[in-house]
Amino acid sequence: MEILRATAEANPNMALIKYWGNRDESLITPTNDNVSVTFDKLKTRTTAAFSDKFKEDEIYVNNRKMITPEELEKSILQLNFLRMKYNVSMKAKVVSYSMTPFAGGLAGSAAGLCALATAAADALNLNLDKKELSILSRVGSGSASRSVYGGFVRWLRGDSIDGSDSYAVQIADENFWPEFRIIIGMVSSSEKKVKSRSGMRLSKATSILYKSRVDYSHSVVNELVKAIHDRNLPRICEIAMRDSNNMHAVMLDSWPPIIYLNDTSKRVINAIHDFNQSEIKSAYTFDAGPNPAIFTISKYAKEIENILKECGIENIIAANVGKGPAPIEEHLIDEEGNIKKHCLKDGELIVGE
Ligand code: PMV
Q1: Nearest one of 270, 80, 268 to 188, comparing CA atoms
Q2: What is the pTM of this model?
Q3: How far is C-alpha 152 from the geometric centre of its chain's CA atoms?
Q4: What is the rounded distance in angstroms from the CA atom of residue 191 to the CA atom of residue 195?
Q5: 76 alpha carbon – ligand 1 mean position (Å)
Q6: Ligand 1 pocket check: which of 32, 114, 195, 196 to mutate, most ligand atoms within 8 Å of Cβ?
Q7: Which of 20, 36, 77, 157 to mutate to test the pocket of ligand 1 (most atoms within 8 A of CB)?
Q8: From the CB of residue 151, how many other CB atoms can be counted at a distance below 10 Å?
Q9: For 228-249, what is each residue's pLDDT tens digit?
Q10: pLDDT digits (tens, 9 = 90+) for 120-164
């Protein structure tokens, strides 16, 4: 059977100004420009294979076949967009391994949908530039649009109705600030109760504070970009913490309210403010889950890890700034279209025959 296949790895990213809501739900165009840093842990590897022989799209993640519409939604939306835009009729078999805990509010879909976009485009020889790759990643998962670059990244909201001007641009690459750290505390890896896509839809429709969040993020995004260029840690951290708090305020203000933070998250917020008392040296941020990510620089990293431990968090991942997606020679699907055995061993993905 003739199959076209390619494999890619992509890193997750953590937002400093968050994306929380769409202008257009089907195109995934955000209501506000947002900014993230790509980090070098919890990556995803994905092999995408296309063939006329495949009867339907099949998606496997971490050795499990995705079955429910909810599990399949993001990948299928992305594959359908790709088929329509680039005139492809073949169905796909996708095998993916994610090092990120599932749907725990830890940016897993960013790495996953960026890796799928990259692998699928390579398999079909589409030769996409970064802008097109970002748009393809975006229609799978908004945050994935930012993972197409390493370093610090801004996702432009855009204004057009077809979404063609809503894509990521790089602010500074992965070598710009080697001391920058992203320290993640795993409070919970369980599935979040409200998925980010439905949560943001609810917030946009019901939160009284929503409009002021959009206005506020417009007013501060250029300042954040400048603070990154200046490596101005205190300013970056203040903007990031206020944005996270603002997004979680909007979540609480949604109806019915959405609450992702738990007591451990709140302990971390207070502990970071104590640590920052004389000077701002770190920032907490939370996505759609209770797990804190702390931005800081290398000389404070050990202290931050101790703070997280004192807050009761045992599982801590310290990451550096990471790179954009890259092709990988070792596929998870063989030449006949069969899934190769694969598993994680000592933090490395081992692939058999
Ligand atoms: O694109 P999604 O479904 O991964 O949504 C991401 C939303 C947040 O993680 C909460 C914020 C962000 O900008 O990453």
Answers
A1: 268
A2: 0.96
A3: 13
A4: 9
A5: 18
A6: 196
A7: 20
A8: 22
A9: 999 999 999 999 999 999 999 9
A10: 999 999 999 999 999 999 999 999 999 999 999 999 999 999 999
